[in-house]
Every structure is written in structure tokens, then in C-alpha cells.
Amino acid sequence: MEGNFGFIGLGAMGFPMAENIRRKMSSSKTMYVYDVYRPSCERFVNELGGIGPIEIVGSVKDVTENSSVVISIVPSAEDVRKVFLDGKEGAIAARKDAERLFLECSTIDAQTTRDVGETLTKAGSGSYIDTPVSGGVPGAAAGTLSFLIGHTDPTDSDPMSKTLATVLAMMGEPKKFFYCGKLGAGLAAKISNNYLSCTTLLAVAEAMAIGIRSGIDKDLLYRVIHNSTGQSWMCDNVMPVPGVVPHVPSSNGYKLGFKSQMMIKDTTLGIDAGHATGIRPVMAEAAVETFKKAAEDPRCIDRDGSSVYLYITDTKDEDWK
Ligand code: NAD
């Protein structure tokens, strides 16, 4: 891929995704980076500056001005509106270029992404596509993310779709790319997936806690569930009980991961989507109450969401660290 890249949001996910782009893009082209937390940009330059030019700029406008592809992965819908639609510093304030491609990897509601996409297109700023991701920080680091894409399958008659597929393949595995048809549809699929992953994580934490307090050894209980009908991806890859599955956040100080505070956001997105479609979101409504309490608990703040286990079991730090 020729052309400069722009990257906005160098957090837990964005940093390794941007790293894959920098490693795979043309070494003579520049990557423009912006994060409201400047030290993340400085760390990015320190760690990857040897691979090719990276420039830290002071606004999304400056990123956009210089890039033919701009990737954003920031926490919330409010952040996304600011990134793209701020009249002074946002993408919309940059020089117009209808050929430019914006990829929205943040997990937000589908309506916001439709508003942002339609506004940017009308303004002639470029094409904006929702491309939310699945696979977590390990998938981002390995370049094996799954993408849920708010666009039709790539075709020769749609050159932008070819560029889109090429850029996504720099961060993910094409066999896990799902073209969902239209703007906002990638996020609609993502919200359903996260409805399940968030509620399942809490169910795993509660089931493990109940079994352990009933006197079953934690490793035995995990083996039972892993080989029985309760088995799930969350149980195997985000097991909330420390010391059961070695590679997961709970066995590594609840290292991120996916922040406790963000469990509220994704569960709420599912609740809102349920109400909007006439489906009563019973599971998510129950789960969000616990996630809200965990997000205020010092044992869980800024740790991986699986630390909800420490909240529900009232485990003291000295008992698991
Ligand atoms: P994070 O908090 O680690 O990173 C977000 C980054 O965005 C931070 O560096 C922050 O400083 C920056 N930021 C915030 N507002 C900004 C703005 N207005 N302009 C520029 N930068 C801004 O979060 P994360 O875990 O990387 O998640 C980011 C998004 O990806 C969220 O929407 C999340 O739901 C989604 N997501 C996360 C995971 C995961 O496992 N962490 C997986 C899939 C999707």
C-alpha cells in the first residue's frame, strides 16, 4: 500500500494495531499519530521510529490532512464525534479529499457511526466505514484480529473496497473478515457479539465462585466446565479466577485486556440495541448493575474486566496477588 497512514488512539488496542500498520506499510511513507494522551505517542515513536517515519501531530485535523487512510480506535461515541466532527480540530476540518478512507474500529452505537459517516461523505472528506474488531489485545498484537465491516464484499468495480481489504489485512486475518453490507451494520454485529461476551464473562465468574465456595478445587472445576456444556470462549480465554488458565489476564495481575469501566459501555450498547429492536435485554440489564459496581471498586478500576471476580467474591488484594 502506498500513501501515508494516520492513526488516532494509541491505547490497549490501538498501539499494537498501529504497530502492525507501521511494520507493513511502505517504509518510505509517514505514519501520523495522535492521542489525547501524548506519552502514548512518544512511546510509539521510541519503540517503532526505527522502522519508518512517524510524526506526532497536535490534532486529528493534522492527521487527516496528511493521510490517505485514517484509522481510529478510541473509547466511546462521544470521543468518536469529537475526533471526526469537531469543527476546529476534527477530521472534518481538514482539507477535503473524497478518495480518503476512514476506518472506525471503536465499539460505539451504530447510529453515531451512521451520523459521522454521512456527515463526512456529504462534506467531501472521504469514505468512512465502521470496522469494529474482535480478538482483544492478543489478536491486535499478533495481527490476527477479526473485523466486522459496515460495507459490501470487495469487488473490482469498487476500488475503495479493495483498499479497505488491503488495510484490514495489515491488522487482521482475512478469513475472519465479515462484510455486513452497509454503514453501521458492522457495529450492529459487534454489539450482539459483545452482549454475549460481557454477560458470559460474568456468568463464568459467578459459576466459578459458587463452585469453589461449594468446595470444588478451582482447576478441577475448570476442567469439568471446559469438557461439559458450560464451556465457552470466555471460560477458556478470559477465565476470571487467577491461577487456573496461565495465559489469561487474571493469572497476570488482571493486566489489560479490556478495562472494567468499559464493560459498562459494551453492556449498555447491548441494552440500548435491545430496546431499539423490541427485544427485552434481561441478561445485560442484570449484568450491567454488577459491572457498574465493579467499575467503582479499587480492586477492579483500570484492571481487566475479568477482575469483576474480585468484586463478587470480595477477595482482598493480598489473597490473590
Ligand atoms: P484504551 O482506553 O486502552 O485506549 C483508548 C485510547 O484512545 C487512549 O490512549 C486514549 O488516550 C485515546 N483517546 C481517547 N479519546 C481520544 C480522542 N478524543 N482523540 C484521540 N485519542 C483519544 O481503550 P482500548 O481497550 O484500546 O479500546 C478502544 C476501543 O476499542 C473501545 O471502543 C473498545 O470498546 C474497543 N475494543 C477494545 C477491545 C479490548 O480488548 N481492549 C477489543 C475490541 C474492541
UniProtKB/TrEMBL annotation:
Annotated EC: 1.1.1.31
Domain 6-phosphogluconate dehydrogenase NADP-binding: 5-172
InterPro entries (UniProt xref): 3-OH-isobutyrate_DH-rel_CS, 6-PGluconate_DH-like_C_sf, 6PGD_dom2, 6PGDH_NADP-bd, HIBADH-like_NADP-bd, HIBADH-related, NAD(P)-bd_dom_sf
Catalytic activity line of the entry: 3-hydroxy-2-methylpropanoate + NAD(+) = 2-methyl-3-oxopropanoate + NADH + H(+)
GO molecular function, one term: 3-hydroxyisobutyrate dehydrogenase activity
Active site residues of this protein: 190
A cellular component annotation (GO) from this entry: mitochondrion
Sequence ranges assigned to domain 3-hydroxyisobutyrate dehydrogenase-like NAD-binding in this UniProt record: 184-297
Gene Ontology process terms (BP): L-valine catabolic process
PROSITE patterns: 3_HYDROXYISOBUT_DH
UniProt keywords, alphabetically: Branched-chain amino acid catabolism, NAD, Oxidoreductase
Pathway the protein takes part in: Amino-acid degradation; L-valine degradation
Entry keyword Thylakoid: no
Family membership noted in the UniProt record: Belongs to the HIBADH-related family. 3-hydroxyisobutyrate dehydrogenase subfamily.
Stated name of the protein: 3-hydroxyisobutyrate dehydrogenase
